[in-house]
Amino acid sequence: MAERRRSFQVPAQAGRGAGSGASPPRPARGDLSPTALVEALLFVAGQPVEVGELARALDLDEGGVRQHLAELEATLAGRGLRLQWHHRRVQLVTAPEAGPVIERFLGGRGEARLSQAALETLAIIAYKQPVTRAQIEAIRGVDCGRVLAALRARELIEEVGQADGPGRPTLYGTTMRFLEHFGLRHPGELPPLSEAARGGGG
């Protein structure tokens, strides 16, 4: 779901002597808490951000940033935004429950539904990742080249490395966009495989 960006202002820092040996001034924070500043950084980023990048921007260690992210996640409970995790990256996204209203507000410009073949392929990647094309095709029993290309075009999967062995085949995994599409905060929220096999997945 496309995000609308707002204009923002960065307050000018007060002048400070730049004599030799003087340490650089810390960013002006006003009365905002570190948790509020984390929220502001995620908002203006508009894309997944490494925890270490937030730590450097706020002059905090990564443990402190994770604590503030946990506080922010608790604050967002029941609201229209939430945090989404993928490995060490985090992003501020709209809550999936708001999807129908947002789509209506934007004039119904929703994405086309995934085909059954795409859903089956995506499920294999989600539960088996990292996985090669040959492994996917061995499970599905059909060629998956076009389906994989379509899933990559929609940014639901990505290349995550190369497998050992002849030819070093490409390994595929899911993306942040995959989590957003299915309303998941992190890969650990995938339903048990048995439930997905019964039709409980996406």
Helices and strands in order, then pairings?
Layout: H1 34-45, E1 49-50, H2 51-58, H3 62-76, E2 81-86, E3 89-94, H4 99-105, H5 116-128, E4 131-132, H6 133-140, H7 145-153, E5 157-162, E6 170-174, H8 176-181, H9 193-200
Antiparallel strand pairs: 1-3, 2-3, 4-6, 5-6
Q: How would you summarize what this structure contains?
A:
43% of the residues lie in helices and 13% in strands. The chain has 202 residues and is α+β, with helices and mostly antiparallel strands. The strands form 2 sheets. It has a 3-stranded antiparallel sheet with strand order 1-3-2. The chain has a 3-stranded antiparallel sheet with strand order 4-6-5.
Q: What does it look like?
A:
There is one protein chain. It contains 9 helices and 6 strands; from the N terminus they run H-E-H-H-E-E-H-H-E-H-H-E-E-H-H. The chain has 202 residues and is α+β, with helices and mostly antiparallel strands. It has 2 domains: 65 residues, Orthogonal Bundle (Arc Repressor Mutant, subunit A); 85 residues, Orthogonal Bundle (Arc Repressor Mutant, subunit A). The strands form 2 sheets. It has a 3-stranded antiparallel sheet. A 3-stranded antiparallel sheet has the order 4-6-5. A hairpin with a 2-residue loop joins strand 2 and strand 3. The N terminus and C terminus are likely disordered.
Structural domains: how many: 2
Radius of gyration: 21 Å
Query: Approximately how much beta-strand content do the residues carry?
Result: 5-15%
Q: Which structural category fits the helices and strands?
A: alpha+beta
The level 1 CATH classification of the largest domain is Mainly Alpha
Low-confidence stretches: 1-25, 195-202
Strand arrangement, major sheet:
1-3-2
**Can you say what the CATH homologous superfamily of the largest domain is?**
Winged helix-like DNA-binding domain superfamily/Winged helix DNA-binding domain
Query: What global shape is seen?
Result: globular
| Number of DSSP strand runs | 6
Distance between the ends: 16 Å
